[in-house]
Amino acid sequence: MIVDFIRAHAERREPGSGLRWGVEPICAVLTQHGIKVAPSTYYELVNRPVTAAEWREALLIHKIREVYEDNYRVYGARKVWLQLNREGWRVARCTVERLMSGEGLKGAVRGKVKRTTIADPADQRPNDLVQRQFAPCAPDKLWVADI
């Protein structure tokens, strides 16, 4: 994330002044603000080759999105995981959950919310004995109960 920020701002020119920011000054400013990053760390991360795990994760994200879209954005992590296993992708369900969460993909929630209490509009309500004044003048002067 920091690498992306530095990459987006490095070598960018300020309009009107011609001032150009390099990697080292950006790292110095970030360090002053509590985000400790050395220029060597930035260059190491930028020049690092993509690992096999990162490559597989990128392929999985693409495949998860494909299954999700093919099923009208209804499938959640469990059904996407089952479909991937049917198609020969051996992956753990927790991995599918993590990747879907990271991509913002959520399954449809079906069902109706069960309403347990339906108040009768014609029924008489209890009297408001304290007239909505819930600050008692002394201890043991105002008690509340919920039945």
TrEMBL record:
Pfam families: HTH_21 (PF13276). It comes from the Bacteria. Residues 55-112 form the HTH-like domain. This is HTH-like domain-containing protein.
